[in-house]
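The records we work with from here on pair a chain with its fold. Each token is a code from a learned vocabulary of local backbone shapes. A record is reproduced here so that you can trace the correspondence yourselves:

_____
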Amino acid sequence: MTSRVTGAALGTILWLPIAAYAAAVVVGPDAFPGMFTSSLVLLLSILIPLCFGLLHGAIRYGITGIAVFLLVTLAVSNVMEDASVLTGFPFGHYHYTDVLGSKLFLVPILIGPAYFGTIYLCWMLATILLRTDARRDALATLAVPVVAAFMVVGWDACIDPGHATIEHLWIWENGGGHFGVPLTNFLGWYFTAYVILQLFALYRVWQPVQAPAALPRGYWYQACTFFAVMALDHPAQYLGQKDVAIADATGRIWHTGDIHESMAIVSLCTMLFVATTSFAVLLLRDAQAADRTYRRGFHPATRPRSPRAH
């Protein structure tokens, strides 16, 4: 009983980081530009999803389970990123600038946590859409990583042109057609996200199944809501940013207004679509469960028998 009460309290508290992300990352920079610097917004956009994922995941998978997810994400992401900086595989040829701060080998330390926050949310949304939370069969173990990795790529398609071409957090040395970002980047993202998710899915095969009834009310809706808030950041940027010409590493000229507008379109058609669909799936399931409970209350088999029937 104590663990359930603690989980319920933590589940309620987890609405706070969603609200904090909306205020500090989505609304704040445009409404209060003097208060929220670009470096602060960038840091919060990484740390808030990181904290949410750790706490939200601990409710469902326990401290050990979410620690495994985090360690797998940090290890695989750093190996893949370092390999690509050195060889061009799997993302393509690029290098990081010093904007993101200290590095682990050739990759900023903040990159791993940025991976985790988003990949965790995509794992949760794929679990909702495929309804595989209580399944440990081979098909479910494979299907969730395959689907969730597409969601991760949709997120990166929204952020990469802004962070690379506009903000120069990293530099694509040969440019690319997606506002200076090459196709290989997104293929690499899919491969890397899939490896992380598949390793965690294989770990989950050996873990006991926890009854969904033990989860706090609204637990699944939190993941949908957070991903939707992250998606809305891009339309907000489009509305609040100025249009200036900017060059990528190859000298090709892009317009920031076009980049932000395109990212807003992509976010609406990928991230927000997935979040809304997941939310709708949960609503339909809850309605179906309530209907079954209602009908069961009027089913003859559930009515107490008359003494004359004995």
Observations:
- Residues 1-5, 306-310 have pLDDT under 50 and may be disordered.
